[in-house]
Amino acid sequence: MNDNPSRLEELSSRISQIESVLMHLQHEVEQLNQAVIQQNTTVDTLDKSMKSLNSRLGVLEEDDEGRDPHQEKPPHY
Where are the beta strands (DSSP E) in 12-53? Predict the structure, then answer.
């Protein structure tokens, strides 16, 4: 291997470029991780809301089972 100064400078430059790209990728991964965490929080919130709405809908359906809308008078009578 030839250890001349230009070869060492070239290798040093390539290592610096690789380090720069690596730092950029690490930053991108961290941003993506934060986005996933935020989306997971949103999904959890939406899941809880959906369960609550389904429960409320079930109660309303149970209350409505005894009624026959065809036999009820409209509210304007």
Answer: none
Q: How big is the CA angle at 17 (ends 13 and 20), to the nearest 5 degrees?
A: 140
Query: How is residue 21 written in tokens?
Result: 């790209």
Residues 16-67 pLDDT 10s: 999 999 999 999 999 999 999 999 999 999 999 999 999 998 888 777 666 6
The tokens 């230009």 sit on which residue?
6
Distance CA(10)–CA(6), nearest Å, equals 6
Angstrom distances, CA of residue 48 to CA of 6, 36, 45, 52: 63, 18, 5, 6
